[in-house]
Each structure stands twice: as structure tokens, then as C-alpha cells.
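S.,

Sequence below, as promised.
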Amino acid sequence: MMRAMTLVTLMVALVYGTANAQQVNVKIGVLTDMSSLYADATGPGSVAAAKMAIADFTRDHPEVKIELISGDHQNKPDVGSQLAAQWYDVDGVDVIVDVPNSGVALAVSQITSQKNKVFVVSGAATADLTGSKCNANTVHWTYDTWMLANGTGKAMVTTGGDTWFFLTADYAFGYALERDTTAVVEKNGGKVLGSVRHPLNTNDFSSFLLQAQTSKAKVIGLANAGGDTINAIKQASEFGVVKGGQKLAGLLVFATDINALGLEVAQGLSLTETWYWDLNDASRVWTKRWHEVRGAADKYPAMNHAGVYAGILHYLKARLALGPGEHDGKSVVETMKAMATDDPLFGKGSVRVDGRVLHPAYLFEVKKPSESKYPGDFYKIRATIAGDDAFRPLDQGNCPLIKG
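The prediction came back faster than expected:
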């Protein structure tokens, strides 16, 4: 098996290095949240990242002609499904990227498999995309619920936060994040005292926070994201939750959320991300360009935006390796899996047979205002987690692509 994979990788490398100079045509669709609670961490910033990836790739490969379109799924699986089907059947889209909202992403993944196209996920979190719902047409970049639970969740439990209460977004993402974090809490000797589910895009968390306070749990786990996480943390601060002795665990927090909250409110929060704009020189250079393309110097890119950029680059490398003409989605994804990933934001990595992209993750702590030296200086690193350790072991996901 190892020898076969080596030969495949070698063949891909040879083809990629001597790609036919004939024109290769590709159409990319950024399916995202342009107007609601995930718009800041994905949305226009993801479109900007896609434009950057296309510009960087075509600079070196002018024979590849790329068209980019974008659409708003409104966080509704039916809307996302309709757009995906139209893009594939009518508009000639080859690959869909981004797709925040796990419910929408699971639906798009199924349609992509049916249409034999390609889906590169960077905005959705559910680990089921590379677990029980995996297929041969989907690649999952950036993060997932298993990684988040085993990063932030484990860190909180092992430092004394051994009783939990969850505030959970009432849809697929929230369920998966609560499930995966519960498993980590219990595995490490902790106990979950209860949970409450809240509607997506909630403005008033008062009743949910009251239940969490009443539970007396040491940790309130926020199994939500985007605007919901921002509102929950702001209102928890107003209600004096932390001053009362409880800790907040932001299980999915983006740099965009910290920017919106401000360090005064967010300071001390632990979180796990796989990319940070101020991580190194390459990230800072990329962010400066992103600001120019995005046209918003007061915003900072999130790991989702980095995932869009890296995922498109890797897809285009695979597509170029296959050469001109029509290529079905499974063939492109097989080629993506055979090639090592390598980009300026995530570095070197790989795509597993279940579609999971392996790259490092980082446990961060939000700085105090007095520790921040310049705008956007949000984090200090508490731990670096290698890619093989950051994501769920291959044999534990129940992906049907894995042969028993």
C-alpha cells in the first residue's frame, strides 16, 4: 500500500512539473454567509482570500483560466442546497469553497458527491464531514469540532475546570461541538452538569446564562460561534459571570470575534485556532495584502479566510496536474490527497483518505489590554499542537472510505 501511494505521488509530481501548456479552465464558487452572524469570519473576507489565491496561482500559471463567483446561503440548508445544485448543473462551477454553517455544509457535501464535483470546506466545523458523513468529493480544511474540543476543552479540564455546562447553538454544528467536548471532559475525569440549546443568531442570552450560573459549573462551554459567541461573552461580562467564579470556554472563537469584543472583555479567554494573522512574517505579509483586497483596514482575517486561500491553492495545483479537459471531482480529490499540501499560511501538510487536512493547531490565550502592543495584537501562544495530534485519529471517525 505504501509503495502504491509513493508511485501515485511521484506520478502526480511529474505531471504537475510538466503540465500541458494548453489552457485549463476552472470555475470556483465561494458559498458563504454574507449578511448574518458568520459574515465577519467568512463572507466578504473569504471572497477576498479567494481572489488572492487565484491571483497568486495564475501569476505563475497563466495557462489556467479561473472564474470566481460567490453567493449567500443565508445559513439555510435548503438555500445552500439550491445554490450548489444550480452552480453545478447550470453555471458550470467545478468546486465550492468555504461554507460556514455545518448544516449547510453537510447538505452541500452530499450534493457535491451526487454531482461528482469538489467541495473544499474551510468555514464549517462538524467533524462528521470526515467521519460518518465523509465522501470521496469533500476535503475539510482549517478546523473541526474534534480539534476544538481536544484543544480548548482538554486544556480547561486539565487545569481545574472539571464541571461543565453548555450553551449550545441549536443545529448540527452546536450538537457536534457539545458532543465532542463532552467526550473530552469525561475522558479527562470531568463531568457535564447540563446544557441548554439556543436558537441560531440569538440577541438575548440572559435566560441561558441564568441556567448556566444556577448549575454552579466551573466552566460554561460556548458551543456556538460568530455573533452568537460575541453576544454570549458580552452578556456574560455584563452579568458578572466570570467575577462570580465561573470561567467561559469559547469553543470556537475567531480573531474577528476578539476584534469585535475588545481585549477588555475578551482578556484571559482560552481558544484554539489553526492560523493567526500575527503568527509569523508570512502571515503578516499576507494580511497586509488581504487588507488591501478586502478594503477594510480595521478588520483582521480569521483562520477561515486562510483556509479558503490555502484550499484553493491546493485544489488548483491538483487541477493543473491533471491537465486540460474535463475531470470528475473524485479524480481531482484523489490527486489532492496524493499531493503534499504546502502554502505560506499553513506550511507543509497532507490530506488524509477521509478528506481531513492535517496541519498544526495552536492553543491561544487572549492578552490583557496592557499586554497588547499594537492594534490586532490579540493572542499569546500557550501550546502548539502537531497536525497528527490536533485532529481525530483516522480509525476513530467511522468514515465509510476507510477499509476495515
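Confidence is low (pLDDT under 50) at residues 1-20.

Coffee later?
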